[in-house]
Amino acid sequence: MAEARMRERTTGATATIGRTGFPAIRSRTGGTLDIVTGANQAGFNPLDLLYASLSACLAMSARYVANRIGVLDRLTTIEVTVTGEKAEAGLARVQTFDIAFVIGGSIDAETRRAIVRAAEDEICTVSNTIRGNPQFRTTISD
């Protein structure tokens, strides 16, 4: 099925860090976010941002699908929780993503499954990227 195309948005982020402290993130549209790394610090660390990106993309994609199949008027909420399990061996990476959808409203179980399947497999750029094998183009300057 053809991938859904929304209005184009400038994307990208820059992380800046000094000799001490934590990274500060700035989006290309001017949004800012400070990163934390302490186990009990409130906020986002890089892995949280990965999970947040996937959960937000899936939630928005599910709403898009609900609209596309004509059940948006019966939808009340979509909640997507993403956690994961890091690999115990090899490269530092997330080995398994645990994704939990809660779709509120008067929508039957079969339609909920269809919404989730289309959101994960067709619409969400983040899930499609994670499942793929994206290439990296890296430059280094001083």
TrEMBL record:
InterPro entries: KH_dom-like_a/b (IPR015946), OsmC/Ohr_fam (IPR003718), OsmC/Ohrsf (IPR036102)
Superkingdom of the organism of origin: Bacteria
UniProt name for this protein: OsmC family protein
